Amino acid sequence: MDKDSRPRTPREKYGEELRIRRVAAHMTQEALSERVVCSPTLISHFEAGRRLPKPDDAQRIDQALGADGFFVRWLEDLESKYTDHFAAVAELEQQATLIQYFALTLVPGVLQTDDYAGALFRAYRPNYTAEELDEFVVIRTKRRRILDGPMRPVAWTLLDEAALRRPVGGPQVMAEQLHRIADMTEAGRLRLHVLPYNVGAHALQQSLLTLMSFEDAAPVAYVEGFVTGNLMDDPALVSACQTAYALALSDALSQQESLALVRAAEEHAHGQH
């Protein structure tokens, strides 16, 4: 599918400008890669918006294309605090009119409290410093702002019951996290459904999934695993993800029942103090 059928991210615009200027300079990707001292594949990644050049690479690109520092200056505005596989997703979240999250074992990042996010980072990052941990938490939790603005997207969250039961960060942290989800639901900022244990197998049991829809562009789907993620815009793949979400949603509790389950889990967490 043509990228122009969905909103282009700033990274993709950067890559398109690089491609236009390279072609105008009558240079192949191989020729440019020799000047930048990298592989032609990496140039291809730059032009597709999948990767951003490092500052030294951007400087050599400017020199090779006679761009007078253009790509170095633009790069300063594009450098993302997110990992490569998630950076484009974070940009698209800002443009979406509807976001549908599914989480299997963890509360989605956009809904996480600071303490919950901190507990997750402590669990899988060895030899961290307090300063690094604080930076990770700030980067993750600032995504919550997309649900606060006047143009905020409609947000659906489908949670496996497992995400409610594992006491991440201990009872107090988990109770506060569940309280936040329930409060957002009651305030109308979130459409909440829970897939209870007694459903058994369901259509999304194998993966985290995020679906995003846009006002004037085709939808996308994103699945994520450990240190990797896949942003999909192929119509067939996105349709398959939408179908799986719909199937799982059909097995979920109603919003009222889901809210009651979250409140009960919150009280249970409080009772573990």
TrEMBL record:
One Pfam family hit: DUF5753
Highest taxon of source: Bacteria
Keyword DNA-binding: yes
Gene3D superfamilies for this protein: lambda repressor-like DNA-binding domains
Domain (HTH cro/C1-type): residue spans on this chain: 18-70
Cross-referenced SUPFAM superfamilies: lambda repressor-like DNA-binding domains
Keywords, in A-Z order: DNA-binding
GO MF annotation: an example: DNA binding
Name of the protein: DNA-binding protein
